[in-house]
């Protein structure tokens, strides 16, 4: 599959994503109400989430394995190129993967209830923050795992809180 596009789709659950012709599967579903994205398989590359204006609830889990995981990740130094000169085959193409500004965060930015769970070596959420900091204008409740608290200076956590003007409930 290269693209999922539907004006009537209300609920979507993705447990693996792979495209032969494009860098990432693109998903556009303007009437989508709930999204579950659980990527913990070796071939599960995060899809590029586009138009999801009606999104109410989103659950995103990015696992330890797969093409969006830095193969040279160091807990003390981060991803490839952060504090060392190694570059892995996974991180290198992400600089120009054809996905525009963001891969995941732009698509889930209209959600009212959001769970973002990521394992440390997964670089997609970090890449998204570096490309663009989306505004979560409708976000009322947010659940984050330790990935968001382990970053130097708590930058990802501070950024998501700064860009969530109506947030009422935060669970860490």
Helix-strand layout with pairing:
Layout: E1 3-5, E2 11-14, E3 26-28, E4 34-39, E5 48-49, E6 57-62, H1 105-108, E7 113-118, H2 124-131, E8 141-144, H3 147-150, H4 155-162, E9 169-171
Parallel strand pairs: 1-3, 2-4, 3-5, 4-6, 6-7, 7-8, 8-9
Account of the 3D structure:
With 172 residues, the chain is an alpha/beta fold. The chain has one domain (3-171). 14% of the residues lie in helices and 22% in strands. The protein contains four helices and nine strands, in the order E-E-E-E-E-E-H-E-H-E-H-H-E. The protein has helices at 105-108, 124-131, 147-150, 155-162; strands at 3-5, 11-14, 26-28, 34-39, 48-49, 57-62, 113-118, 141-144, 169-171. The radius of gyration is 15 Å and the shape is globular. This is FBD domain-containing protein. It comes from Aegilops tauschii subsp. strangulata.
What is the structure about, briefly put?
The protein is of the alpha/beta class and 172 residues long. It has helices spanning 105-108, 124-131, 147-150, 155-162; strands at 3-5, 11-14, 26-28, 34-39, 48-49, 57-62, 113-118, 141-144, 169-171.
